[in-house]
Amino acid sequence: MPFETTIRAFAAALAEPSAAPPAMTLGRMGAPDLRRFSVYRNNVAVGLIGAIEARYPVSRRLAGDDLFRAMARAFVREHKPCSPVMIAYGVEFPEFLAGCDGLEACLIDVARLENAWVEAYHAEDATAATVAELAALSPDDLPGARIAFHPAARLMRFSTPAASVWAAAQTCGASVAPIQAIGEDALITRPDCDVHVRTLPPLAHDFALRLREGATLIEAAQALNDPAFEFGTHLVGLVECGAVARVIPGRAS
């Protein structure tokens, strides 16, 4: 039997608890040994569940150990690693939770935030722009100026107070259940190799989203059409928190 076929059969048997051990895996008696193979199968499952628990610690606290492990076990049965690099495993877990009946929306949002945190932590390195670069824009540069976001920046919109729940879990050992069911926007950045999660004020998410989609600074501000929006404050805030990699001057007309 070709080696590739053997590997596929071995992996398929690991993924299916009710499957018999592959015929080519022989024990000491010269025949497939279900008991010994089951030990190996269980070790693989435990390792993958542990990877999910490590990636989503606050979600685990919200759900409770028993429920979280049951959900992680179900996820592991359906999603096998596509890479030997385990930091990439579990990206799909929040959307898997979204497909489960009866789960609190805040638990799913917190899982999405935790996944974005891990992605930001492992994102490509890049130098963050400075306020001095922003201040260097001339009046002629400003109308067409754009920004390029840092590779680690993640912009999130939640229907629940997920960012506040996540933040509470970082500073206390008590319950992290939400107090008020209000939606929040968040920005995740990684200045100086340290991941930060910031709850955004009103209008900041929409402004940043338009900039991320390629709008100029002026276009993004004008699209909001809200007299309460403070253009300079929000723009400087994006730069100061490390969300911007480059300030791109516009072309003088």
Explain this structure.
It is a single chain. This protein has about 250 residues and is mainly alpha-helical. The chain folds into two domains: about 1-105, no CATH class; about 125-253, Outer Surface Protein A, domain 3, CATH 3.90.930. The protein has helices at about 5-15, 35-55, 55-65, 65-80, 95-100, 105-120, 130-135, 160-170, 205-210, 215-225, 230-240, and strands spanning about 145-150, 155-160, 185-190, 195-200, 245-250. Strands 2-3-4 form a three-stranded antiparallel β-sheet, with helices on both faces. The chain has a two-stranded antiparallel ribbon with strand order 1-5. Helix 2 crosses helix 4 and helix 6 crosses helix 8 (about 160-170). The protein is elongated and about 80 Å long. The model has no long low-confidence stretch (mean pLDDT about 85).
Range of helix content: 40-55%
Q: What's the level 1 CATH class of the largest domain? A: Alpha Beta
Q: Please identify, by name, the CATH architecture of the largest domain.
A: Alpha-Beta Complex
Number of helices: 11
The H/E string reads HHHHHHHEEHEEHHHE
Give the overall form. elongated
* Mean pLDDT value: 87
Please list the strands of the largest sheet in the order they lie side by side: 2-3-4
Radius of gyration: 24 Å
Return the CATH topology of the largest domain.
Outer Surface Protein A, domain 3
Total number of beta strands: 5
Summarize the biggest pleated sheet: 3 strands, antiparallel
Unreliable runs: none
Could you say how many structural domains there are in total?
2
Percent of residues in β-strands: 5-15%
Kindly name the structural category.
Answer: mainly alpha
What gap, in angstroms, lies between the N and C termini?
A: 70 Å
